[in-house]
Design goal:
Blueprint: H1 34-39, E1 55-60, H2 79-82, E2 87-89, E3 96-98, H3 102-106, E4 112-117, H4 124-133, H5 149-157, E5 170-173, E6 193-194, H6 214-223, H7 230-236, H8 246-258, H9 260-266, H10 273-279, H11 283-296, E7 301-305, H12 326-350, E8 357-362, E9 366-367, E10 372-375, E11 389-392, E12 395-396, E13 400-406, E14 414-415, E15 417-418, E16 425-427, H13 432-442, E17 451-453, E18 459-461
Parallel strand pairs: 1-7, 1-8, 4-14, 5-6, 5-7
Antiparallel strand pairs: 2-3, 4-13, 8-13, 9-12, 10-11, 15-16, 17-18
């Protein structure tokens, strides 16, 4: 997959990968026999990995979210920095967000805001690799060196024993494969299971899940003649896995295709109208509702990306002045974002998921505290016509915010602080490795001890220098 996104006109930078036609891969991969490889299990039990029912949802904001205009406003900063949005009180005394997030502000006692996240890479590829895989290189590169935490967890948990649940461990909703993240040396078998279609559309469905038609079942059975297609299978499964348990893994793939529980997990029509309305009748709201349904059904890892038309002209959060008027774009996307995330916060607590399921909402970095100006390269939602001077903010890895809830975390906390312009962390510095160690800790994985062999056979630690953020440990 190529990095960069499709857009009209020139771009200030390549930007995060845009997937407007999200949930792309579907079950079409079964014809190429990637699904059995993805579901293939290992009997070994790696040191430091504890079988666990815990799960993680990561809501990804590609391109990064401006900290000053959302979770870390600086109302006393000069007009060159603070932006146009007024601040509003949250449920936590003395803590303010901007007016763009009224629903989340009213629920701030149910989640934890980290205002002191930082990493060191200025570009989208390297920044994403730092946060998701711990690769601390600062230069952008065309391919990942280390597996991201999602693929690594899928790999490690797949080696802890059998799985009766027909659903895969790792599902990606509007989640681009490869590029800035991916499985690296654990192998393509541990990529996410992805589906196609817009979950807000009335005709949305996941093709072939829970098939009951006899003719379709027979057709799938014929296509499951794996022993006749070993060459294809060997390209799809993990390079290091043996083939002696082929029948077991073929059965698991067929279970996903034929078990009605799999179809039910993706079926949003089983939710009442009030719940669907509460999340928002749009792509983002229904993506987060689907994420909640999937972890309830036993999926370990769900990643979902809030991108596409709801973001505005360029389809992501990369709010350079050449791409958009950052303040108009933030207004354009704020309601859908605030509503969907607030609904997920409520559901995680109200449905008793707050100990088992950890949710993190983040991008790869923040944006420059000082507002810049440039000529628009094209008009559209959140952007003036081409040639118009408009405000923007550029990449800023030195200080940014994200939010966490569930996972047994004591809610209502604010971790860390930035200076008066949100330019630098001045309290409780949280690094990319700390970010990863925190997620692994919730999943029962000791990231400082567990290793995976790289392409050369060298045992490689999941995280070299990070420690779980104490306030985020349940």
């Amino acid at each position: 997959m190529k990095s960069g996104i499709r857009s009209t006109g020139m771009r200030h930078c390549a930007g995060p990968a845009d997937r407007r036609h999200f949930l792309q891969a579907g079950l079409a991969g079964f014809a190429g026999l990637s699904l059995p490889g993805m579901l293939r299990l290992r009997a070994e039990h790696p040191t430091g990995v504890t079988p666990s029912s815990t799960a993680v949802i990561m809501v990804w904001l590609p391109g990064g979210c401006s900290q000053l205009d959302t979770y870390d406003p600086k109302p006393d900063a000069s007009s060159e920095y603070r932006g146009p949005f007024r601040t509003i009180p949250t449920k936590i005394p003395g803590v303010h967000f901007t007016e763009l997030l009224p629903r989340q502000a009213a629920l701030a006692d149910k989640f934890t805001t980290v205002r002191s996240m930082m990493q060191t890479a200025p570009g989208h590829p390297a920044g994403t690799m730092q946060l998701l895989s711990g690769d601390m290189a600062t230069q952008d590169k065309p391919a990942v060196k280390y597996p991201d935490w999602m693929c690594a967890t899928n790999y490690l948990r797949s080696r802890t024993g059998s799985r009766e649940n027909p659903l895969p461990r790792y599902v990606g909703i509007n989640w681009p494969l490869g590029g800035y993240h991916g499985p690296a040396y654990v192998g393509d078998a541990y990529q996410p299971f992805t589906v196609s279609g817009d979950p807000n559309q009335p005709n949305f469905s996941v093709p072939h899940l829970g098939v009951s038609n006899p003719a379709e079942l027979a057709r799938l059975g014929r296509r499951a003649g794996l022993r006749q297609r070993l060459d294809d299978l060997q390209q799809a499964v993990d390079r290091q896995l043996e083939m002696e348990a082929l029948d077991q893994f073929e059965a698991q793939a067929m279970m996903l295709l034929t078990d009605p529980r799999a179809k039910e997990a993706f079926d949003l029509s089983r939710e009442d109208d009030r719940t669907r309305d509460r999340y928002g009748r749009n792509a983002w709201g229904q993506q987060l509702l689907m994420a909640r349904r999937l972890v309830e059904a036993g999926v370990d890892i769900v990643t979902t990306q809030l991108s596409g038309p709801l973001c505005g002209r360029v389809g992501n959060w990369d709010d350079h002045a050449v791409n958009c008027n950052i303040f108009e774009s933030l207004r354009y996307r704020a309601d859908a974002y605030d509503q969907a995330v607030a609904a997920l916060i409520e559901d995680v607590h109200d449905r008793g998921l707050d100990k088992r399921v950890l949710v993190v909402v983040t991008g790869e970095f923040g944006h420059t505290p000082k507002i810049s100006y440039g000529a628009s390269t094209g008009g559209g939602p959140g952007s003036a016509p081409a040639g118009t001077q408009q405000p923007g903010r550029d990449h800023w890895p030195a200080a940014f915010s994200n939010i966490w809830f569930g996972g047994g975390i004591r809610p209502g906390q604010v971790v860390g602080a930035t200076d008066r312009r949100a330019e630098a962390v001045i309290d409780r510095r949280c690094t990319a490795h700390d970010f990863l160690a925190t997620i692994y800790h919730h999943l029962g994985i000791d990231a400082s001890a567990v290793t995976i062999q790289d392409f050369t056979g060298r045992p490689t630690l999941l995280v070299e220098n990070g420690r779980p953020i104490p306030e985020l440990i349940g």
